[in-house]
Automatic annotation (TrEMBL):
Pfam families: Meth_synt_2. This is Cobalamin-independent methionine synthase MetE C-terminal/archaeal domain-containing protein. Residues 13-367 form the Cobalamin-independent methionine synthase MetE C-terminal/archaeal domain. GO terms for molecular function: 5-methyltetrahydropteroyltriglutamate-homocysteine S-methyltransferase activity; zinc ion binding. It comes from the Eukaryota. InterPro entries: Met_Synth_C/arc (IPR002629), UROD/MetE-like_sf (IPR038071). GO terms for biological process: methionine biosynthetic process.
Length: 376
């Protein structure tokens, strides 16, 4: 089975550990010791290096490591007109920090392309390379502006009718995807870290307490995501990453995919799913029985949360176990870590050396199972 453009047997979710230079530079910016342009110049330098490292390790779905972001979603979402950051959200696990909450304070608007300049810089680095690879842009899914608060986080003055809010929300992603396509991007990954929370009893109850129906929300979110990607050209592929939290090696939710599996796999019009499966919190592989034969599942069987190296035989055995539930078996599967290595600037609790060794191991395992990549 030939994989969709931008998808590889050894793949990754996107974010990579920030070099010390970047962390120090952001601190210097906050203190007024360097300018924003100086920070960007240093980001450029680090991105050049991380592209070379990805290619050298055998990765072919290339990202900029999300080096220009503080977190995988906040930097993007706060560039949408009408969105305001205010406070943090509770979690079921005691943590040092909690996920942020965003508020919609006025009519949504898309004043400027958000990721285009960053993508263009990445694409030029790939053009400079002699290795065939595809640039990937990761952006949060539109559900991020609803799930973490629901109706109470959306201005009633701006949106007395939530139906109009969801329409405008989809338009923000339609415009950004169109801008990225015009810039040459052909693969966009939506980081959907909300729908899978509806597999956790705690968050299902939380939804009920804010007058949401946890059984209907997956359907509502599927319609929202489908609208958001509905105008993409046929030669642009869309992936969707699902996980249950990945902040400084901490998780926020638990539960297998079964409560949302039918909607997730049968009713959302994406080409590929990046699925968290690195521990028992993600449940078993039975939900993959809903995976259509024309779609791909990238299984996050390896963990980015710590330095431990997975056993090759265990990973291969789990791939084969999962394949038994897929219509086309191993042909529909790829391998990755469950999430990025640095969903926020701070990063997970492992070293850069650990990160690259784990990536090398992943590539080696994938080659032992599938041979060379067959991405278009």
């Amino acid at each position: 089975m030939t994989l969709p453009l931008g998808v590889y047997r050894a793949d990754h979710v996107g974010s990579l550990l920030r070099p010390t230079l970047l962390k120090e530079s952001r601190t210097q910016l906050e203190k007024g010791e360097i300018s924003a342009s100086e920070l960007r110049s240093r980001e450029d330098e680090c991105i050049r290096d991380v592209v070379i490292k990805q290619l050298a390790k055998g990765i072919r779905a290339i990202t900029d490591g999300e080096f220009r972001r503080r977190s995988f979603h906040i930097d993007f979402l706060t560039q949408i007109g009408g969105v305001e950051y205010r406070e943090d959200l509770a979690t079921i696990k005691p943590t040092r920090d909690s996920p942020p909450r965003l508020f919609v304070t006025e009519k949504l608007h898309h004043p400027n392309a958000i990721q285009v300049d960053d993508f263009k810089f990445l694409q030029q680095r790939l053009r400079d390379s002699s290795v065939a690879a595809a640039g990937k842009v990761c952006i949060p899914a539109p559900t991020a502006l609803h799930f973490r608060g629901g109706r109470e986080n959306v201005s009633r003055e701006a949106y007395p009718d939530m139906g109009l809010f969801f329409q405008d929300l989809a338009k923000m992603w339609q415009q950004e995807i169109a801008d990225l396509y015009a810039a040459g991007c052909r693969f966009v990954q939506l980081d959907e870290t909300n729908m899978v929370y509806l597999c956790d009893p705690y968050f299902r109850q939380s939804a009920k307490e804010r007058n949401e129906d946890p059984d209907q929300l997956p359907l509502q979110y599927a319609a929202l995501i489908n609208a958001a990607i509905s105008q993409r050209p046929t030669d642009m592929k869309i992936g969707m990453h699902l996980c249950r939290g990945n902040y400084r090696s901490q998780w926020f939710a638990s539960g297998g995919y079964e409560p949302i599996a039918d909607v997730l796999f049968q009713q959302i019009d994406v080409d590929v799913y990046f699925l968290e499966f690195d521990d028992e919190r993600s449940g078993d592989f039975k939900p993959l029985r809903f995976l259509p034969p024309n779609k791909i599942a990238v299984l996050g069987l390896m963990t980015s949360k710590g330095p431990s190296r997975e056993e090759r035989d265990t990973v291969v055995a789990r791939l084969n176990e999962a394949a038994a539930f897929c219509p086309r078996g191993l042909d529909q599967l790829c391998l990755s870590h469950q999430c990025g290595f640095s969903s926020s600037m701070e990063g997970n609790e492992l070293t850069e050396e650990d990160q690259w060794e784990k990536i090398s191991l992943m590539v080696d395992i994938a080659k032992s199972v599938w041979g060379d990549d067959l991405s278009l």
